[in-house]
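input
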Amino acid sequence: MADTPDYSWPPMERRKAMGKPMKRLDGPAKSTGRAKYTSDLKPKDMLYAVYVHSPHAHARVTSVDTSDAEKSAGVKAVHVSAPAGTEVQWQGWEIAAVAATTEQAARVAAGRIRVEYEVLPHLVKDDDLSKATGRTKQGGEKVVGDPDETFKNAEVVSEGKYGIPIANHCCLEPHGAVIQWQGDKVYAWPSTQDVTTWATQLSPNIKVDATNIKVKMDYIGGGFGSKFGPDAWGEVAARLSQKAGGRPVKLFLEREAELMIAGNRPPAYGKIRLAGKKDGTITGWQSDTWSTGNMPLPYIIDQIPNMRIKHDTVSINSGPSRAWRAPNNQQLCYLTCSAVDDFAAKVAMDPIEVFKKAVEYAPKARVELYKYQLDKAAELADWKKQWKPRGAGSGTVKRGLGVAINAWGGAGHNSNCRTTINPDGSVLVEIGTQDLGTGTRTIITQVAAESLGLPMGRVKLVIGSNDLPPDAASGGSSTVGGVTVSTRRSSVNALAKLFEAAAPALSAQPADLEAVDGHIRVKGSPNKSITWEAACKKIGPGKISEMGSFNRRQPAPGMNDQGVGGVQIADVSVDTETGLVTINHYTAVQDCGLIVNPRLAESQIYGAIIMGISTALYEERFFDQQTGKYLNADMEFYKLAGIGDIGDIKVHLDIRPENDKRGVIGLGEPPAVAICAAIGNAVTNAIGIRVPHIPMTPSHVLDALEGRIA
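output
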């Protein structure tokens, strides 16, 4: 190509496929059941694997006897993953697995494996640091400015205790894989957020070259940050297949084990004091917090001039933590925004106005953004009319409004795409990414169609295999920013080659051509054109196949970007006799860069809010500290929100031109951040007292109302 193609996005007014609310391409397949998830697969001669799990929260394995299981009918392989001497750190820890010809046979055999333990002391509850003796690690103290003098001389000081507990991912499709190990080849069908490097992670564990591990996944039933690598069950399934002579083995966690060991969102608890002026200006921050991980406070408003921050980490025996849709942001947002809301109440001001002052301490690039979004969200939520000071309502059912803010990065990940144009006019786009249910298939197809001047139906897309051009893991809202750029570049590169082939037929230079509505035409002369099919016939006997890439270390200004903000407002009613919280309305204003598909963008925000309402009002794990048992590791008593629990959701995409020109930014995580804080503040506004810990269940609300929480 003589000149470097122009990869920039078309202006908003000229986009024909991008920017349009196209329906999901995989919608019909999913809604009719034709879409096959990994857990639906049943290859020929497949064996069923069942785990044996530890019943103890903390123990040491002293012996494992599999002899009876090996003799059990239908058993083809047994594998011990936690031999004698292994220290078990939580209930559900994987001890051994059995593969048999039927699921029932595998269960019977698993029940015949005899395991003995030395039970060790455990801690399964994390909300009381005084009971974690010997299990805490002090993180030191960070001091900025002069907090002591600031609090001493402050016009107003507010303080509160806040807590956001562990939450489960609750993927509807559990963690697992179907794996077949034949000779030096391994074929894997995992439920994963990382098709490209899944094999690379499994390779050293089973001593098979990553190039000999073939990975394929068409659909995934939820991941939310918990399904990147092969995990222990990936390796165990491979070992069982090898021991069974190469027969495929299906190993998926059952629901109880899924909630126990497949990962969880870490908790965060703490005491926070704010100092400030009567006009609502915050001048000092002091926090003493603890969690199972690091929690860098304050959230977003981290430029407060005077701060004292202390954080401890605590080790507990209640399952491993994993990334959970905007890792740590929900916790940090809840603690920070609850404290700001309490400060607003202390100075007797409208929280919106106090948050406007507080965001002066946010990164400079976002200060005006947050102020605009606070005003916009307040307008959409009818805040000026509906908001009243805390506890001002009458009657037993009280209404309240609460606000919170969010932030996220959303930079694109490394991505490679191949676009092929054939002489018959067909187009094939190949990229080794995965669609987590976010609409990635649709987005890639829209970008390719836009770039080639074709309808979306003319583009065939292939994803979900590590034989394709490598992509990266779908995490951190990074997918859309990566795949859109690589797809755009590969499509534009392929089109440039087509222009070279078609130019002589139009007596024009390749640089003077454009692709519009299924035609190749001379710019400025729409009548001087040939059809797409006619142009493709000029390719000759071969085909055009061009690559396009994005490397996050090499920024693509205007094509993608990172760093977004949002504001959310919850409008709730609280029955003070029953403690029941009802969502009336929920408003979300979100900055999101260039929107490829507004329908899918709104869908991401709807899904995030629904997920957040579930954690804010319902999701609660119950452990018995005496026995260490997880008491509600099921979908009956670990309650999730239903359709009747959600209320009315209003979404406003902040797609002003100044945001659009930044390029594509990931949207999966930021709208999932602020829900717990906004709902917590709304409940507090309604009843006039802080319910310090979520979820805002009736029992927790009544405890707060009746003074049973200090």
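quick obs: The first helix runs from residue 27 to 32.
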